[in-house]
Amino acid sequence: MHGARAGLVAGLALGVVEITASTLLHGDPRLPFDFAAAIIVGPEALTPAFPLVASLTLGAVIHVLLSILFGTAFLAGLALTFQLSARPWLMLLYGMLFGVTVWEVDFLAVLPVIAPELTGRLDLATQLWNGIVSYCLVYGPVLAAYVIWVRPGMLDRWWVSEGDSEEA
Q1: Helix H segments across 81-162?
Q2: How many helices (H) and strands (E) does the chain have?
């Protein structure tokens, strides 16, 4: 459950940054939604004629599902490697590395296989800001911040049972 929550929080932050970057770089806040929809629909989703509602719906659903999946993978990886209690600076580093890895795998390995017609559609500035920077400096660190804040899987004051008093 914490992985899904972490993924949702990080996905929301990533979405805001991607929409802002697309608006500033291209004057088009739809680009992240259109690109996500294009993975399913094809390059037609990148045309201005593609319905806005379809773009927003498909893009948001894909983004949320992937955010939940990756958030769960991040927490599972931490749990399997016994790193849920890592120091905050190390957790942030893990988050940054995870974020850039997600971007690398998604856009450099998976996208060319499942949607090769989309690989050359993004210019370098968009790839840098919507890709590497936003995943490395927003998505991953927000995942890590969630883990630092909530510390799932850690027992707080495990030595005190419910019936024990604090003064004993």
Answers
A1: 88-103, 111-114, 124-126, 134, 140-150
A2: 8, 0
